[in-house]
Automatic annotation (TrEMBL):
Domain N-acetyltransferase span(s) in chain numbering: 1-156
Pfam family for this entry, one: Acetyltransf_1
Organism: Priestia filamentosa
Regions crossing the membrane: none
High-level lineage: Bacteria, Bacillati, Bacillota, Bacilli, Bacillales
InterPro entries, alphabetized: Acyl_CoA_acyltransferase, GNAT_dom, MshD_Acetyltransferase
CDD domains found in the cross-reference section: NAT_SF
Entries under PROSITE patterns matching the protein: GNAT
Domain of life of the organism encoding this protein: Bacteria
GO terms, molecular function: acyltransferase activity, transferring groups other than amino-acyl groups
Identification of the protein by name: N-acetyltransferase domain-containing protein
Amino acid sequence: MNFRKATLGDFRALNTLLFESQRMHANALPELFSISRTVIPYPDYQTMIHGSNFHILVAEEYGKLIGYSITELTATSSGIGRSSSRAAYMYYLGVDTSHQKSGIGRKLFEEVKKWAIQNKARTIHLNVWSFNQNAVAFYNRLGMKEIGKLMSYELH
């Protein structure tokens, strides 16, 4: 197994993997997520690949992508009662369903941690939806802690 930075040539394979997660989210929360085969449009993907604040890592086995993480280095601004700092925001971390529970997700997270430390981030943040209890348990096992809750009120 090989872990490497994604390239423009990984666009289709990465979107295929992202689609698995997108479909699960759209089924659980159709008011927030749509089912689309192209989760990240190509122009956005190009910007991420070429941007210095993004880190797209893929796990590859026998030439096939089986895992990914997409993280952005962000600056949290100071505000009323908040201090400013650098954070790594992990938008996606996923492993092909046939390869889950084999340590690939943990290894991807460890690589994100190394990148975040090298880039002087103080924390890694991510959003995980309450319905996705497998992901919540996974991130808890990695040592992540809940720091807030996103609340919603349906108007219609």
